[in-house]
Specification:
The complex is a heterodimer of chains A (326) and B (267).
Chain A (H helix, E strand, L loop, with lengths): L5 E14 L4 H9 L2 E15 L4 E5 L6 H9 L6 E6 L9 H4 L2 E5 L11 H11 L4 H15 L14 H13 L5 E5 L7 H18 L2 E5 L3 H7 L2 E6 L2 E7 H8 L2 E7 L12 E6 L2 E7 L3 H11 L4 E5 L3 H10 L4
Parallel strand pairs in A: 3-7, 3-8, 5-6, 6-7
Antiparallel strand pairs in A: 1-2, 1-4, 8-9, 10-12, 10-13, 11-12
Helix pairs in contact in A: 4-6, 5-6
Chain B lengths: L1 H20 L1 H28 L3 E2 L2 E2 H18 L3 H11 L1 H6 L5 H31 L7 H26 L9 H14 L11 H9 L2 H4 L1 H7 L5 H36 L2
Antiparallel strand pairs in B: 1-2
Helix pairs in contact in B: 1-6, 2-3, 3-6, 3-11, 4-7, 7-11, 7-12
Classes of the chains: A alpha/beta (326), B mainly alpha (267).
């Protein structure tokens, strides 16, 4: 059995933050006495990633995703727990380790703003000691896959958000990292650009066998790229497994879509009517009652068509994040 | 070593390209470097003329020589790292530097040196223009000119390391402006920027000898102008070497502690 590319065991991070009440009195009091509070950003999470695996790392804002990625990339020192990435302890920040990983943050820029991306790429070539031939080949591949051709000569400030993101990703991958941490790489991009970046990540993973841990709020990213997802909330691990199992585990309902001649008014007796338009009715029914409700619908109503399906992944995730009972 | 040389060469190129982008800001920075010593030069020329042509050992033309050379030395040893560091930490760009497999100080050194190389010809032209106007007078010996080169180099390294170390304060406070202000006032007085150290009262001359500031700016200037004995020069070079060693140790301590804080509270 191969050893995992990423091994995380009982990982925790507690931030100690200063706290005070509002007002002048509280401000003066805080000069002599400071009250602090522990924030458990990550609370005892455990999971592994096999070499070459792409895993979606999901959770609402503040769940602890970015904190975890920063611990994995060596930017943050954990409060407790073990982490090993490619056999290295990340926060020791060995040069050898840093040459084998990358972190792309969709909301932060690495490229030098006022000069063409190609000049920043050249600097990265020297920083990562990429041999000239490898650099030429990799730049060629990235240019082709991300369609960077006309963008490389323009000052970064003149690029659109999507164009800049493509250049950011290329810049972060020039040294051909074996482990790639992607923190919302498609944030703010239009649908076409999101799809292009998604396709590229899949292709990079396929060509180079890289291990990818991806956070994204766009479920389309996760569905397209990740068979497996890890879900955290309030720093705790909620789920680790196949995306399809996530739906099974966290949903107690099914969706029945019925095509009728027109919208019936008394369908509430079959389940919760989610929508009704042009005779197409969507019902939400408890999972255990699906067969019975379907039978009743077919027996009672002039059904043209009927489809039983799991609720959309967005809906499931939304409910998990909102911590509603499912 | 080859990889580091390659890194420096590439950083030189990048800084050069960036400087061509920021031409206006470059001119403004250079104007600042010219105006400050020029103001002191004019003030001291007026004082000297009013006092019958000299103050202490400095004649009016001696002041001209002092401040013109000081302008060049200050320009060559100046760093802007203390202004930048807080921004790097606040905006998170330091995180990306920490993810790279080279110490961030290398890109700062290369960036600083290349900026100096690009601007030096212009500063030399300005110095020549000022020399034509103010007619500086100095009588340097050949050995002093030769000793000026290592003294200038040590002055640059010392100032760079010290200011890089002080810049690390940004790891602990987001308001480094006050620290920078105290530092710049100390430099102004005790490095010989506002007036040659020899003109200050005895206690200040002692303070200037003990503290690092004079060795970063005033000492190479005095050396080149032939105002030091060989023994003074040797003492100065030794003082530079000692402070350089101290700065190097302080830098490592501050950097390690700073990164520890950074990686504890969130990057």
């Amino acid at each position: 059995m191969t050893s995992p590319a990423i091994h995380i065991h009982d990982l925790s991070k507690i931030y100690v933050v200063n706290e005070r009440e509002v007002g002048v009195k509280a401000a003066l009091k805080s000069l002599v006495y400071r009250r602090t509070r522990d924030i458990h950003a990550v609370d005892g999470i455990t999971f592994d990633l096999a070499p070459g695996e792409i895993v979606g790392f999901l959770g609402p804002n503040g769940a602890g995703k970015t904190t975890t990625l920063k611990m994995l990339s060596g930017l943050l020192h954990p409060t407790a727990g073990e982490v090993s990435v490619l056999g290295h302890v990340p926060w020791k920040r060995d040069k050898e380790y840093l040459r084998r990983i990358t972190l792309v943050m969709g909301q932060r820029n690495q490229l030098i703003w006022d000069i063409p991306a190609l000049d920043s790429f050249e600097l990265n070539r020297a920083v990562y000691r990429i041999p000239p031939e490898d650099y030429r080949l990799m730049l060629g591949e990235l240019t082709e896959l991300l369609e960077l051709g006309p963008l490389l000569q323009k000052p970064v400030r003149n690029l659109s958000l999507g164009e800049r993101m493509k250049c950011e990703i290329a810049s972060a991958l020039l040294h051909r990292p074996q482990v790639v941490f992607l923190d919302e790489p498609t944030i703010g991009l239009d649908v076409t650009m999101q799809r292009r970046i998604r396709t590229f990540i899949a292709e990079y993973n396929r060509r180079f066998g890289a291990t990818v841990l991806l956070t994204s709020h766009y479920m389309a990213d996760v569905e397209a790229l990740c068979r497996r997802v890890v879900v955290i909330h309030h720093g705790h691990l909620l789920f680790d497994g196949d995306l399809s199992n996530l739906v099974q585990q966290f949903t107690a309902h099914k969706t029945i879509v019925v095509q009728l001649g027109n919208c019936q008014s008394d369908l509430n007796s079959y389940g919760d009517v989610v929508s009704c338009s042009d005779g197409l009715v969507t019902l939400r029914v408890p999972k255990a009652e699906t067969a019975h409700v379907t039978e009743r619908l077919l027996a009672d109503l002039p059904v043209i068509d009927l489809l039983v399906e799991d609720p959309p992944i967005e809906e499931v995730i939304e409910r998990i994040f909102a911590q509603e009972p499912l | 070593m080859k990889a580091l040389r390659e890194l420096y060469m590439q950083q030189f190129k990048t800084t050069f390209i960036m400087m061509l982008q920021y031409r206006a800001s470059l001119v403004i920075w250079m104007m600042g470097h010219v105006l400050e010593p020029l103001v002191y030069l004019i003030v001291w020329s007026i004082v000297s003329n009013g006092a019958g042509g000299s103050v202490g050992d400095y004649s009016t033309h001696g002041f001209a020589a002092y401040f013109i050379v000081l302008m060049l030395v200050n320009h060559l040893t100046y760093t802007w790292i203390m202004y930048e560091y807080e921004y790097r930490i606040r905006e998170g760009s330091l995180s990306f530097a920490l993810l790279k497999p080279v110490h961030p100080i290398h890109s700062d050194i290369a960036d600083n040196v290349s900026a100096k190389l690009v601007t030096l010809p212009f500063m030399l032209l300005i110095a020549a223009g000022l020399a034509a106007i103010f007619k500086p007078a100095a009588t340097p010996a050949l050995w002093a000119v030769a000793a000026f080169v290592p003294a200038l180099l040590l002055a640059f390294i010392l100032r760079f390391l010290l200011e890089w170390t002080l810049a690390q304060a940004a790891f602990w406070t987001t308001r480094t402006g006050a620290i920078n202000q105290i530092y710049f006032v100390l430099v102004l007085f005790l490095s010989g920027q506002i007036a040659p150290i020899a003109l200050f009262p005895y206690p200040i001359r002692v303070a200037a000898t003990v503290l690092p500031f004079r060795w970063m700016i005033g000492f190479p200037v005095e050396l080149l102008l032939g105002r030091l004995t060989p023994s003074d020069a040797l003492t100065g070079l030794m003082a530079q070497a000692i402070w350089l060693g101290v700065s190097l140790v302080l830098l490592q301590i501050a950097w390690r502690a700073g990164v520890r804080v950074y990686s504890a509270v969130g990057a």
